[in-house]
User: Fold this.
Amino acid sequence: MKNKIKVSAPGKLMLFGEHSVVYGRPCIVTAVNQRMRVTVDVTKDSEIGLMAPDVGIKSFKASILTPLDKLPKGARFVFAAVKNFKSRFKVTSGLLIKTKSDFSSEFGFGSSSSVTVCVIKALSQIFDIEINNNMLFDICYKSVIDVQGVGSGFDIAAAIWGGTLYFVGGGKKIKCISKKELPLVVGYTGIKADTATLVKEVSQLRKSNRKQVDSIFDTIDSIVNKAHKLIVSNNLNNLGEPANLNQGLLDSLGVSTPELSRLIIAAKGAGAYGAKLSGAGGGDCMIAFVPNGKRKSVEKAIEKAGGKVISIKSGAEGVRIEK
Ligand code: PMV
Assistant:
């Protein structure tokens, strides 16, 4: 058993296939070079301490038996992760967990999934329990579902494997398809979206329009498969069209917003190959695929349209132990 461990995991950006992936369909996600960093110390008492200033938790301590809904929001993923790890491997010990993110939790880069991955990975090191990526995924996915009830798990896979992944909802298939950086510009709308609410809205729409929504999902599947082929063959300049098609379909599902549309139109007007929202919609970020020479003008156009450009590199390394 070790007394202290430091772990980091990347944030993520959904590239293609959001929402339909919740229904067991495929998507493409990339890990970004802004990371969540977690330190876990073994303590002498039996409680779990948490210092997570990025989500408003300066110093918090509670028993692991505290029900998740009685904990402050910012503590739930960490506690769910510890609970699931402890009950699976029958280990006990007090812990002090400190989290620090390179990115704001507002951006929708997946701070809750990356923190969950960091905590489970750190505990496996602390207690000398070998777990492979698939096992790590299963425990993390259960923890995230325990807290938020819905989700495909794509963000957890990105935090674990890194790179750019082809992912099928629930983790039925997880395949790294590229480690290269993609020609992306990311714009933040300034609006924090609530993923669970948007997932429920799409589910409501599907209830009353089953045939239509499922055929939209079928088309998104074929867009994902096309983008998959383009990425594997390094044909990155052709990702604009699938991005535009995917955006049109997300708009028809009702998850785009005027702010997202403004940034997307601005990016395309400034020479991007194509652009779309990334993630649940309702705010958060948009992405644009850009030719090399147009990066600056696309960034400028996004800022002029009211967005904030976030500088990231895609295809980042997955979870790792830090010195
Ligand atoms: O809002 P984000 O970036 O966490 O993305 C959500 C993507 C969804 O497909 C809508 C939900 C999911 O869990 O796959």
Notes: Residues 36 and 101 are 4 Å apart (CA to CA). Residues 14, 18-19, 21-22, 108, 110, 151-152, 154-155, 195, 199, 279-280, 284 surround PMV (CB under 6 Å). The longest strand covers residues 26-43.
